[in-house]
Amino acid sequence: MGRLIAQNRGFAGALLLFAALFLTYNLLHPRGFSSAVFVQNANESVAIAFVAMAQTVPVLMRGLDLSVGAVMTLSACVASYLLTGSALEISFGIVAVLATGTAFGLMNGLIVVYGRLQPIIATLATGAIAIGLALLLRPQPGGDVDGDLGWALTNTVWDFADTYGIADGGEAWWIRPFADIPVPLILLVGVAALVWLPFKRTVTGRTIYAIGSAEGAAYVSGLPINRAKLAAFTLAGFFSACAGLYLALQTSTGNADTVQAGAYTLNSIAAVVLGGTALAGGIGGAIASVIGALILRLISFYFRILDIEPLLQPLIEGLVLLLAVSAGAWRTFSVKNRLELFR
Amino acid sequence: MTAPRIKSEDKPLVIAAGFTLVILLIGTGYTLSTQGTAPLLQPTYLLQQLQIGSFLGICAAGLMLVILTGHIDLSIPATLTGAAMIGTAIGGPWAIPAALAFGLIVGLINGAGTAVLRVPSMIFTLGMDTVLRGVTVAQTGGFAPQDQATPLMLALAKDRFLGIPVALYVWAAVSVLIAFLLARTAFGRSLYAIGTRERVAYLSGIRTRPVIVGAFVASSLCAALAGVMLAGYSAKAYQGMGNAYLLPAIAAVVLGGTNVLGGSGRYVGTLIGVILIVLLNSVLSIMQMPEALRQIIYGVVIVVMLLIYGRGDRETG
Prior knowledge:
The complex is a heterodimer of chains A (343) and B (317). With 343 residues, chain A is mainly alpha-helical.
């Protein structure tokens, strides 16, 4: 147990911070803990959590994907066209949206692996392309998203069952214990558990960590470097598409918002760092980044319940981010041999 | 006889310069076929475009020093905006010194966080950008302040001397200074050394911390100067005035052949990169290209040009 914590110190710290913030938030909230507020908070956190997961995978191999926000926006714009009609059409739409983001991620990977460009600059450029495509699709915000689906996926399990009339409209005995859980949280946990955790255990997943620790060593050990890099960017595209899909469901529109895309990209990096994943690669994971993203969102929720002037919000968010990343820096003063600081 | 060989470091410069000419030709061909004139080849038009480009050029010059060390400065937008607001708010003869002092302080904090605390520059300067933006928003209430730019700021950005915009002289002065720093001083050579391998630079006796701090200070000072001039150009400061300068500045530095991981690159390249981006922008506006296509072309140009420069070396193998 002690070793487990020592190995995941960043993650443990993030988890503690999140727990403390969440508890205080609900204690301070004028209405205390309530399902309605919980659902709303969950709704507002899912997109950034997915984008943070997306950012984590390239970061683990010491890359960076500056196109995650743009791919999310592009996916949301595609979704605003396809998530309507019969059940079959909607299912096809969901698959198409996820495929769009995944394909874009694969393109990023191909450019990085076979073009041998630096990820940071390659994705900066492809991000511009994604935003351009999104603007072509949606010059003005708009679109048509199936209302039932949007409602069902952005509320509690009970609402989901009620909307589609399953489990006696949510009254069946076996669904009662889960009735108040927000569906967005289930989606988030589901994607993390069904996509990220199995992937992490594959050779390709392990290779991503190995590349981040020492690419040369990974290469001479015969690990599939190229396959891992391709997979990392493809997975980033997939998670970004999940975020875009959810955003479209939540807002019922597609909006090619350049500013929002940029903000999501930058916040994803912040979330990754807050979660304890090293930007130098090799340490961390997507689950940790989800916690980081939730911390970021929680901070902004505090502004609603405390009477803080909204104008101060960006200032305080920035200060918290700076303090959080600087807090981990104290070890630089206790290092005996300064050579250890350089990699 | 062999054809004159181009050094591999100079290859990007030649390609970028060639591509700039191609852009000029395409733009001229377009205007000749639609309007029968060639405004792109008129010196006055070019000078005017370069005058607008000088703000980007100054940002890119400072940023290049940071990129050479293998770091990055994402706080340029807020530094630019903050300096412009401080300049216009203080006014009088102390406007520009105050704005530059602000840049100096931002640079020192960025440098301290990166070089002393060793927080990754990507995240530290990002946090700094958020904080500075927060300060300007809290100070101005999210609106553009009412203050006006001082006459000196207006002169720096708008006046002409001997028929050439003063802004170009400022850009040229900054360029000469940076080029001199890079090529002729120990500080400049240290930047390359740190960007190549910080460990070795440290073991060779380079005091890496002051050098990295110096690079960040240079970047913030340049951003502040650009902010002062941009405030002069638009006669006032406003929220988000620096947002359009970060990504083009990074693109200009990288298209100019500087390795985004640090260690190599020449200042002439950055200069060509800036001119390339400025001309690309002006040709696209002449063609009245919608924003969507503009973004796509922008992205494609960066990817394609970097692919032509030659694929980077494998880290392994």
